[in-house]
Amino acid sequence: MKKILNAKFIFLLAAIFTIINCSSSVKNELRNGDLLFVTAKNSGLSGAINNVTQKNKDEKFDHIGILEIKNGKFSVLHASPKKGSNRQNLNDFIKDQKKDQQNIIIYRMKPEFMKSIPNALLMADSMLGKPYNFNYILDENSFYCSDFIERAFRKDEIFKLEPMTFIDPKTGETNTFWQNFYDNKNIKVPEGELGCNPNGLASSDKIMRIKEL
Asked: pTM value?
């Protein structure tokens, strides 16, 4: 019995050390200001976002956050439906995406634009606490995920606001999900209004894709 308990204890320790080592390995690859893009699903809101914004097969995202490394702590600053504009522990951010069976792709500023990061993080920090923008129409008092990141880097014009489209590329008509989405809010589909999205940000020529987290 004692031998069995010892074996279980050793196995548990080995598992803990494995998790710690994996976590350390992941963190060693990350840099302050890295952008964490979350891959899109094929259905629901996630699929609808991707349907009208995907520009190429390698960019299929529905969420984005910016990494802040401060005093040895790794945090993701992002705007999420559940918590609004918030700071989240990196490990918890990763767990949330894995739980939803979504992956995280690391993007990084190209060397000549690295100088934008300190100010972007300060700006992102100043926006924490603002509610989530569920209408996806630019608003100074609430933010959605890509809006939060675009604003953080706006001073240095890292990303661009572009006319939004909700047209399904397969039908040439307004995507059914989005038509119903805005009908239920009694809001006209904001076709052509300025905005941004994760896929659009990922296509910026000022950032580079690094790897999957």
From this structure: 0.86
